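SUBJECT: protein chain
CONTENTS: sequence, structure tokens:
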Amino acid sequence: MKQMNLLETPVRRVFMSYLIPSVSATLVTSIYILADTVMIGRGIGAAGMAALNILLPLYSVYFGLGMLCGVGGSVLFCFERGRGNERAARGYFTTALLMALVFAVLSFFLCRAFFVPLLGLLGNTDSMAEYAWPYGRVLVTASPVFIASSFLQAFVRNDGAPRLAMAGVISGGVTNVILDYITIYILDWGMGGAALATATGSTLTVLILSAHFFTRENHLRPVRAVRLKKVGEIVSSGLASFLMEVSSGLVTFLFNRQLLACVGEIGVVVYGIISNTALVVLSVSNGIAQAVQPLLAMNFGAGKKERVREACRLGIRTALFVGILFMAIGLLFPVPLSHLFLEPSPEVLSMAVPAIRMYFICFPAGEWNILCGAYFQSIVRPGISLTISLLRGVVLNSLFVFLLPVFWGVNGIWLTVTAAECLTAVVTAVFMKKELTQNGAPAITINRL
């Protein structure tokens, strides 16, 4: 398959050629969990759905570790290739690969060894234990596969093969959905069967992505150029992506604990509806960011600032459109969204409708934050990207989830993410304004977005 020239092909054409494969790949990744949620909610019940929701932070950690190595290493890989330094680029790939292997081994052994206390920390209750235990056991056993999947997606896409990345993820996602139905409805394997379906789908994705190493267009070849300095650079570059992924797990964890304390398991069920829908939106956001990231990184490395500006404008405009679209869906159709996951009781529905509306207001600001963070990451300014990710994903959410309920009760929990995203958006706009005024920087004119 012929690869596009990221340095010469018109920017809009390159962006569009990456956009659909990237969004498709990240969107299907969310289906791994979304399919489990729908199948479990309808085939097992609300208690199974609540148990799944308390385990989602683990999946976020595994996927985030793969992104830490994959996105962090592939940004530097693209940057060095843009400068014409192939050996240095392959050195970053080799180092990132070894890091991913180390994380995979550690996650497998540590999570299996400390599974029981880990389950208690996540918020397991007596009524959820029979559902959380079988799903969680398979999830932690398959952790190396989840790490490998997100790692390979980043590098294969950045090595000019977005369609292969899309094919791998879509194949895995479709397999997951089919096996979910078979294991839950036909074989009656329950939660363990749903987890097995997810692990099998991810394994297929890894196998398909690995085919890239045997193509003629492959530049991902290991070299003996591993240095401890490169580890630090990859972590610095990828930490924002890691936090963006893991923060969704952290927010889920904090929300679950607060909701259990405030309104009990019904709150966790409602949040399961919201968090899984938000997972789809986040996947689309990540897909847009990943579509523009290779274009930004390679052209910045080559010093082509006008192409960097054009790519950034395209990415942000697309992201804002998507954010507004999803916000409108939440405001107008909260009842159909609730019925998508389970047959809600009147009590669940009465809480879900206002909760969805309050939460979904966050999406336009969130899209702005994610795309601007990807921009700074791609132009090798990881400090600013990390600051944005920390604010929106960890600092403000952790603060507001405890502070806002003091004034507005459970509604304060539903408004937490909206408040965090909007405040972060203001800070991000200040960073972008400063970028505009820096001499010679590939700045973005905000009033032209």
